[in-house]
Design brief:
Helix content is about 65%, strand content about 10%. By secondary structure, the chain is mainly alpha-helical.
Length: about 250
């Protein structure tokens, strides 16, 4: 009965998964068996504070918020420029000239043989201009103040988002650490339970072979052994998932 229920749950979970990823024909797809990583993490994962510090240093979303704060600071400085006078320096060069190699008048080339060189003809008259201007917007209908205030509000909101994200990352790491420790403890507990269930099943099966235990006792011991194996498998899968959660939360 337990096997039938488990197989039915696997089928339903497969349908639910494929529906979430927008696949309407689950019979045409097979989900490959994944290798469960049950090796415990290294000593670096045993210090909760180090994990929090590492996550705060390398999480991409937190780095993005830090960059947004710096951008907001630059926008505030740029908006404040409207309070100060501006000194503008303009300069330029102009050249007037022309060059003719042929000029026909009544069918006759009337151009003189004594023409100016090409460089002198084109660039013989060069003028330079230089301008220096000072401007100061004393009355801009509070446009500068409005821009500065808007950028300050954006900067404040960005900083609040950064702080909220930092608090969330810290809380997630601490929770993941507790779940990881719990997963290790569950593996140890499930293995002890499995050992006890195997020993109990062996004893009852020996008694059943000699006729001192009933079939019901044997079936109950077998069910307990099966549940112990399921508990061990679940604890191993939980550990594997917790390791992936750690990698995601830390930003590896």
């Amino acid at each position: 009965m337990f096997l039938i229920q488990s197989e039915e749950k696997v089928k339903n979970d497969k349908i639910l998964l494929l529906r979430k990823i927008m696949i309407t024909e689950p019979d045409k797809y097979e989900i490959a068996q994944t290798v469960t990583d049950t090796v415990a993490l290294g000593p670096d994962y045993l210090n909760e504070e180090n994990l929090v510090s590492k996550a705060l240093k390398q999480r991409p979303d937190l780095k993005s918020n830090e960059i947004n704060i710096k951008i907001a600071d630059w926008n505030i400085k740029q908006a404040k420029n409207g309070y100060y006078p501006k000194l503008n320096l303009n300069f330029g060069l102009e050249s007037y000239g022309g060059y003719l190699d042929k000029l026909y008048v009544d069918g006759v080339n009337d151009i003189s043989q004594q023409t100016e060189p090409l460089g002198q003809a084109l660039f013989g008259q060069v003028y330079g201009t230089v301008g220096l201007g000072l401007s100061w917007k004393l009355f801009d209908k509070l446009v500068t103040k409005t821009n500065v205030d808007a950028n300050r509000i954006y900067r404040s909101n960005t900083e609040l988002d950064r702080n909220d994200l930092s608090i969330q990352i810290t809380a997630d790491i601490r929770q993941a650490f507790n779940d990881y420790v719990s997963a290790l403890q569950q593996i140890e507990t499930s293995r002890r339970g499995l050992t006890a269930a195997k020993q109990s099943f062996d004893v009852i099966q020996g008694r059943y072979d000699v006729g001192s235990s009933s079939f019901i006792d044997l079936s109950n011991a077998q069910a307990v052994l099966l549940q112990a194996k399921v508990a061990e498998a679940q604890s191993l899968i939980k550990l594997s998932l917790q390791k992936k959660v750690f990698d995601y939360l830390i930003g590896n």
